[in-house]
Every structure is written in structure tokens, then in C-alpha cells.
């Protein structure tokens, strides 16, 4: 699986948040799909329209990530 990268700092590690403010670590595939870092975790209830970079302050729509 190829992972999309942050357009600012070029790392693949992202997270998403739910309404309670909980975070879930994710990657975004080259097809634009948001997938959990741990395969056994669910993303139900998490906002998949905004991802946050773990390496810098960037956040936004997963479609704005870049290929490497």
C-alpha cells in the first residue's frame, strides 16, 4: 500500500478526530482511502474529511495530500 504524504513536511503519519476529541492514527492510501494504522481499530464515528499531520501543524482534506 502506497501512502500519501503531508504536503508540508512529507510524512505519512496522520490522525483523525471524533466529536469527543479522541484521536485515531491513520494513513491515507494512494487511492485516497483513510485507513487505521492498527488494522483491528474502527474509524466509525471519526471525521474522515479532515486529517491532521503528526509531524507539523498541517491539517485538511485527505485529497490535498501528495504522492511520493
TrEMBL record:
Name of the molecule in the record: Uncharacterized protein
Superkingdom of origin: Bacteria
Organism (species): Phocaeicola plebeius
